[in-house]
Amino acid sequence: MTKTEHPDVIIVGSGPTGSAYARTLRTLIPDLTILMLEAGPALGGRLGQHVEAIPPGAQRQAAAIASQGPATAPYDPASRAEWSRRIAGGDDASLLRRPGLFVANHADLHSGDAAFAGFAAANVGGMGAHWSGGCPRPARSEYPDLFNDAEMDALLTEAEAMLSVTPDLFAGDPGLDAMIAILRPAFAEGRPADRRVRTMPMAAGRVDGELCTHGVDVILGDLLENDPAFTLRPNATVLRILHENGSATGVEVHDRLADSIARIPCRAVVVAADSLHGPQLLHASGIRPPALGRNLNEHFQVSLLAELDTAATPKGMMWIPCLGDAFPFSVTIGGANPGHMPFDRPQDHALAFISVFCAGDITPDNRLRFDDEARDWRGLPRLSVDLRLTGNDQSTLAAARALTLSIADAVGRPLPGHMPISPPLGSSLHYQGTLRMGLRPDDSVSDRNSRVWGFSNLHVAGNGVLPTATATNPTLMSVSLAIAGARALATRLSEGGLDA
User: Fold this and answer.
1) Sign of CA dihedral 221, 224, 229, 235
2) Closest to 378 (Cα-Cα) out of 259, 458, 264
3) pLDDT tens per residue, range 87-103
4) Structural domain range at position 334
5) Can you give the pTM of this predicted structure?
6) Which CATH number is 343's domain given?
7) Strand 268-271 relative to strand 9-12, pairing
8) Domain total in the chain
9) What angle do CA 74, 77, 83 make, to 5 degrees?
10) Which terminal Cβ of the chain has fewer Cβ within 10 Å, N or C?
């Protein structure tokens, strides 16, 4: 019998924020026992690695399929008709078929402004096995107001170290340098030095000269190396959090391979199961604060392929940072490989993709809903999404389209025949607010330490805890808040102060 069969802490989910909890807790309490439960499988190779670390070809495709939860076959590629609609700025259903991901919500994905594609992955490492690795710092206007600027600055620095962020991985790339030289003067007004146009900070490094995005193995490190006090168990779906009198007492878990259900007791539970499945699990467990699943916010976006005047194709990404209300966008620009285009591959010019991420309005009516009479592929209440853009969001979207075209004109021109597109809502993969932290239990799910209101020992983690409207990729901030939450939990565990 291992220690982690009766662990001190159970962490539900193996993505970046769950891993940040594990790493922080074990650093602060070296003899703490931790069991991490992941509904999806391991993907082969080192636990928690990014799929880019898996050799390309059949092995990597198998990893993508294994991550797709209920979608157990390769997705069809874009058809010519779909591609033609996409480049004309229209609806392209192939954008809903993303290798390695599945759509978690049950809804009509073609019903106009209510359509929402809630993408997710089921695998060890969570979305950290598939993400781009971009780790831009948020603008200070995007910080949660439960922390002062100095606190948040320090937490972000720690998160950068934990994710092993390289600030200038693409420095010296001729294609990027040429675009930065064009765009930095155009976006200089009102920008402090740390918010200038620059190369994108990346949780990535180079192995034999090739870029490799970091997975959660970088966070967990030696915990994965036969540590008897830490166990990561794949194919283990948590069906319920067990609790009584404001205390989480354990979890009920389905071993998908053995098709058996067990109850595992513990001293504390951390739910780090993403912004859709985390609220779903709390709901299934009868933990239903008024704000649960509400205030759903995501970075709706505009994208465009551009033909560049520069000779060199950018080999990395550059970034135009958000400035809050003065510039409510986070812009990513990177090289595009013509060989990856399914039809009509241009050869005469270097290409780049331009993606403008927008900060959306926060409203409690944008929310998750749960159907207790129907079940999803894991046996949990089926979830659906209500999300509509406000009038202000529509204005922001129009401004983003104009911005996208102006950037394309500055560095070259839109690829002939291509128009800006707005991918389906949810395509950013950055879903926030459904577990939001706050000052009061009537309009938030957790306190500033991500502890669920009314509980002594139940924490939540991930982008869902973010309470602010942001345009910047939220991973760095979510890991920062996980570090803060883990420290608070460690203090309570050490002091035995787990009374509600």
Assistant:
1) positive
2) 259
3) 888 888 899 999 999 99
4) 3-495
5) 0.95
6) 3.50.50.60
7) parallel
8) 1
9) 160
10) N
